[in-house]
UniProtKB/TrEMBL annotation, chain A:
This is Probable sugar-binding periplasmic protein. It comes from the Bacteria. It comes from Rhizobium loti (Mesorhizobium loti). Belongs to the bacterial solute-binding protein 1 family. It is found in: Periplasm. Keywords: Periplasm, Signal, Sugar transport, Transport. The keyword Signal applies. PANTHER family: ARABINOSE-BINDING PROTEIN-RELATED, BINDING PROTEIN COMPONENT OF ABC SUGAR TRANSPORTER-RELATED. Part of a binding-protein-dependent transport system for a sugar. One of its GO terms (cellular component) is periplasmic space. SUPFAM superfamilies: Periplasmic binding protein-like II. The keyword Membrane does not apply. Residues 1-21 form the signal peptide. It holds the Pfam family SBP_bac_1.
From TrEMBL, chain B:
It is a multi-pass membrane protein. This is Carbohydrate ABC transporter membrane protein 1 (CUT1 family). It is found in: Cell membrane. Belongs to the binding-protein-dependent transport system permease family. GO terms for cellular component: plasma membrane. GO terms for biological process: transmembrane transport. Gene3D superfamilies: MetI-like. PROSITE patterns: ABC_TM1. It comes from Rhizobium loti. The chain crosses the membrane at residues 31-53, 96-119, 131-150, 179-204, 225-250, 285-308. Keywords: Cell membrane, Membrane, Transmembrane, Transmembrane helix, Transport. Its main location: membrane. It comes from the Bacteria. Pfam families: BPD_transp_1 (PF00528).
Length: 417, 316
C-alpha cells in the first residue's frame, strides 16, 4: 500500500513535470508596474507578445513596490524557480549575474544590433562579462526642473542657466508669496536632487569621478563641500512641511501652482500628463541649471534568467519585443522616459520627450551620460544608501555643516564599499 | 501513519487490536501536535540559528556560508558610539529605549487607570469598553496612516486649529527629527492601551469581593485599597501585559514605516527598521543578521530574568 502510494506520487509529479515541460508558450514576468499609466504601457508589450503566440503571466508580488518584488525575487531564485524575466535596477542585475543565475542573450543581441543602438553607459549594467543578461526598457533622467508656467509668467522668470540664476529665480518666487521649491523630504528625493546639484557645481568630470568612480580625493574636495553648501541653500526655499512628503505630492504642488518648481526625474511628467497638462503651455521642463549637455540617468531593465531550454524561446521573444523600436516608442511615450536605444524616431513624443531623446544621444556621443548615485546606477546599493543617509541627515540637520557632511560622506562610502 | 497501523493489524491476531488502539489513543495528542511542533522548530528556532550563523559570514545580497568572523558585530559596535552625527544604528537603539520605555510604561499606567475607572460599576460600560478596545483591532498600518494625517501640520490638528482661529498653535513633532519618535509613542499607546485596559479589567473582575470588603471594614481608604491590595493582586496581569507590550514594542516596524516613513533623515528608525533596511535594501545581510541577533539578545536579557522571578514563586 505504501509502495502504491509512492508510485502514485511519483506518477503524479511526473505528470506535473510533463505538463510543465510543454509550457513553452508563456512568459513569466516579475515586475511592479501596476499603477495606471505603467500598467497601460506594459499592455503594449503583452499585445506584441500575444501576436507571436506567447501568453503573459505576472508573477504575483504581495504589497507591490520594488522592495517587495526584490524580496520575492530573492526567494524565487534561492529556491531555483526562476521567472523568465524580472524588472530590475542597475547593480541588482550585476549581483544576480555574479551569482550565476542570469541567462545569455548575446546571440539575440548580435542579431538585433543592440551593442550599437543601446548607449554604452547602459551596457555596463545589461552586459556582464561579455554576455547580455538584461534588456533595458527605458532611460529615465534625473537632472530636470519641472516648472509651473503660470507661476513662472506671474513672477516674470526666465529659464535659469546657472545655479545663481536658479537661486535668483527662487528668490523671485519667494517674494511673490509662492513656495519656491517643492521637495519631498524622503532620503531618495533629497539625494536625487543632490545628484543634480553636484553635477551643476562640479561639472561632468567631477560628477563622474566622485559618484561613479567613488574617487576619494573628489569626495573629500572643496567642490563637494561647495555642493553641500549649494544644497543647503536650496533647502532654505522649501516649505516647512516637506519632511516625509511623497514625490508625487510635491509634483502636485507644482501642478496646482502652489509651488514654482520641482527637481525630479522625468517620471514626474507622468503626473503632469495625468492632470491633463501639456508641456510648453502648462508646464516647462528645463535641465537643472548648469547641467545642460549632461544626463544623469537611471534605467529599468528586464533581467533575463537562466531558464530551462524549453523556455528560452519565450525569453528571446520577450527580449526582442522589449527592445523593438515600436515598443520602445509606444512604451516610453506613456511612461515619460526616453527609449533605451538611440535610433528610435521621436515623432510620437512631446516636447520634453524630444529634448530628452536628443540630450541622451548627445550625452552618449559626448561621454557625459552618467549613472545616478541616488537611483542606484552610480555605485552598489550599500554605497548608494550610505550616500542617501548622509544627504538626508544633512538636509534634516543631524549633520550640521558642509565640512562635517563631507567627512561623513567619505566615511560612510568607505565603510559600505 | 494509518497505512502502518492497518498493516500491523493484518499481521497480528485479533486480540491485539485493543492494545494498538489504546496505543494510538495515547499517541494521538503527540501526532496532532507534531506538525506545529516541527514547524515551530524549523521556522522559529531553526531560522534563529540560521540568522546567528549568517551574522558571522560575509553575506551580502545572497546568503554566503563561509564563516568570516565577527566583522558585522564590530561594525555595529563601532556605530553604537557614533553619536555626532548619530549613526543609523545609534539612532535605532536610542529610539528603541525611548519608545520601549514610554510605550510600555504609559500603556500599563493608562490601561490600569482606565480599567479602574470602568470598574466603578458605571452605567454604559458595555458601550465604553469596546470604544477603548477597538483600536487594537486595527493593523499598525492603519493606525500609522491615520495618525500621520492627524499629526501632519499641513493637514491635521495644527491646520484645523489654525482654521478655527488659534493661529499660534504649533505642533510639528512628526516633522521634527528630535521629536518624531514621540509621535510613534502616541500612536502606539493609542492603539494598545485599550487592550491592556481589557486585560486589567478582567483581572479586577477576578478579585474576590470579600477581600475588598474586609479591607474596607478595617478602614482602608480607596487609595490604600488599590495600592495595597488590588495592584499586588494584579501582578500576574502585569506580567502578561508586559510580555504582550514588550514584544509589540520590539516588533513595531510597520508603525514607524506607516507613520513616519523612517522620519526626517531616518530619525524614527527602530532596530527592526535597521534590520530590514540593511538586509533587503542595502544587501548587507550579515550586518542585518547581526542586528537581528542583538535584538533577540536584548529581548532575552529582559524577558528571561522577569519570567524566572515570576515563575519561580509559583509552586507554593
Amino acid at each position: 500500500m505504501l509502495r502504491k502510494l509512492l508510485i502514485g506520487t511519483a506518477l503524479a509529479s511526473g505528470l506535473a513535470f510533463a505538463a510543465h515541460a510543454e509550457d513553452v508558450k508563456e512568459v513569466q514576468m516579475l515586475h511592479w508596474w501596476t499603477s495606471g499609466g505603467e500598467a497601460a504601457a506594459l499592455n503594449v508589450l503583452k499585445g506584441d507578445l500575444a501576436k507571436e503566440g506567447y501568453a503573459w503571466k505576472d508573477v504575483p508580488v504581495a504589497g507591490g513596490g520594488g522592495d517587495a518584488a526584490m524580496t520575492a525575487l530573492k526567494a524565487m531564485v534561492a529556491a531555483g524557480n526562476y521567472p523568465t524575466a524580472s524588472q530590475m535596477l542597475g547593480y541588482t542585475v550585476l549581483d544576480y549575474a555574479a551569482a550565476g543565475v542570469m541567462g545569455d542573450l548575446t546571440e539575440t543581441a548580435k542579431k538585433e544590433g543592440w551593442d550599437k543602438s543601446v548607449p554604452a553607459a547602459l551596457q555596463k549594467f545589461s552586459v556582464y562579462e561579455g554576455k547580455w543578461v538584461a534588456a533595458p526598457v527605458n532611460v529615465h533622467s534625473v537632472n530636470w526642473l519641472w516648472i509651473n508656467k503660470a507661476v513662472m509668467d506671474k513672477i516674470g522668470g526666465t529659464e535659469p542657466k546657472t545655479f545663481d540664476d536658479f537661486v535668483a529665480l527662487l528668490d523671485k518666487a519667494k517674494a511673490a508669496g509662492v513656495i519656491p521649491l517643492a521637495l519631498g523630504g524622503q532620503n531618495w528625493q533629497e539625494a536625487t536632487m543632490f545628484d543634480s546639484v553636484v553635477l551643476s557645481t562640479g561639472g561632468p568630470e567631477f560628477y563622474k569621478k566622485a559618484f561613479n568612480d567613488l574617487d576619494d580625493a573628489s569626495l573629500k574636495s572643496d567642490t563637494m563641500k561647495k555642493s553641500f553648501d549649494n544644497l543647503a541653500k536650496l533647502v532654505t526655499y522649501v516649505d516647512p512641511n516637506f519632511s516625509g512628503r511623497d514625490w508625487n505630492l510635491a509634483t502636485a504642488m507644482v501642478i496646482k501652482g502652489d509651488a514654482l518648481v520641482q527637481v525630479m526625474g522625468d517620471w514626474a511628467k507622468g503626473e503632469f500628463h495625468a492632470a491633463k497638462k501639456t508641456p510648453g503651455t502648462d508646464f516647462l521642463c528645463y535641465r537643472f541649471p548648469g547641467t545642460d549637455g549632461s544626463v544623469i540617468y537611471n534605467s529599468d531593465m528586464f533581467g533575463m534568467f537562466n531558464v530551462p531550454d524549453d523556455r528560452k524561446a519565450a525569453q528571446v521573444a520577450l527580449a526582442t519585443a522589449t527592445l523593438s523600436k515600436s515598443f520602445q516608442s509606444a512604451f516610453n511615450v506613456v511612461k515619460g522616459s526616453v527609449p533605451a536605444r538611440t535610433d528610435v524616431p521621436d515623432t510620437d513624443f512631446d516636447a520634453c520627450g524630444k529634448k530628452g531623446i536628443a540630450d541622451l544621444k548627445a550625452a552618449n556621443d559626448g561621454g557625459t551620460l552618467f549613472g545616478s548615485l541616488a537611483q542606484g546606477y552610480g555605485a552598489p546599493p550599500a554605497v548608494a544608501n550610505a550616500y542617501k543617509d548622509v544627504v538626508s541627515k544633512f538636509v534634516h540637520g543631524q549633520i550640521k555643516t558642509s565640512d562635517e557632511a563631507v567627512t561623513e560622506l567619505v566615511k560612510a562610502i568607505d565603510d559600505a564599499k | 501513519m494509518s497505512t502502518v497501523a492497518t498493516s500491523q493489524i493484518k499481521l497480528t491476531p485479533e486480540r491485539h487490536r485493543a492494545s494498538v488502539r489504546s496505543r494510538l489513543q495515547d499517541a494521538l495528542p503527540k501526532i496532532v501536535l507534531a506538525p506545529s511542533f516541527a514547524i515551530t522548530i524549523v521556522f522559529v528556532y531553526g531560522f534563529i540559528l540560521w540568522t546567528i550563523y549568517l551574522s558571522f559570514t560575509n553575506s551580502k545580497t545572497f546568503p554566503s556560508y563561509v564563516i568570516t568572523g565577527s566583522r558585522a558585530y564590530q561594525r555595529l559596535w563601532g556605530w553604537t558610539f557614533d553619536t555626532d552625527p548619530p549613526s543609523s544604528w545609534y539612532t535605532s537603539i536610542t529610539n528603541m529605549g525611548i519608545f520601549g520605555f514610554l510605550y510600555i510604561f504609559i500603556c500599563l499606567a493608562l490601561g490600569l487607570f482606565l480599567a479602574i475607572l470602568l470598574d466603578q460599576k458605571i452605567r454604559g460600560e458595555g458601550v465604553l469598553r469596546p470604544i477603548y478596545l477597538y483600536p487594537m483591532a486595527l493593523s499598525f498600518i492603519v493606525t500609522g496612516v491615520a495618525w500621520k494625517w492627524f499629526l501632519d501640520p499641513g493637514l491635521g490638528l495644527e491646520q484645523t486649529l489654525h482654521q478655527w482661529g488659534w493661529t499660534s498653535f504649533h505642533f510639528d513633532w512628526i516633522k521634527n527629527k528630535d521629536f518624531v519618535i514621540y509621535t510613534v509613542v502616541i500612536a502606539g499607546v493609542w492603539q494598545a492601551s485599550g487592550f491592556i485596559m481589557a486585560m486589567f479589567l478582567a483581572g479586577l473582575r477576578g478579585i474576590d469581593g470579600e477581600i475588598m470588603k474586609a479591607a474596607q471594614i478595617d478602614g482602608a481608604t480607596t487609595f490604600q485599597l488599590y495600592r495595597r491590595i488590588v495592584i499586588p493582586l494584579l501582578r500576574p496581569i502585569f506580567l502578561s501585559a508586559f510580555i504582550v507590550l514588550a514584544h509589540l514594542a520590539i516588533k513595531s516596524y510597520d508603525l514607524v514605516v506607516a507613520l513616519t516613513s523612517g522620519g526626517p533623515g531616518g530619525s524614527a528608525w527602530l532596530p527592526s527598521n535597521f534590520m530590514y533596511e540593511y538586509t533587503f535594501k542595502r544587501n548587507e545581510m550579515a550586518v542585518g543578521s547581526a542586528s537581528a541577533v542583538i535584538m533577540l539578545m536584548t529581548i532575552v536579557a529582559i524577558i528571561v530574568p522577569y519570567l524566572y522571578s515570576e515563575l519561580r514563586e509559583k509552586p507554593r
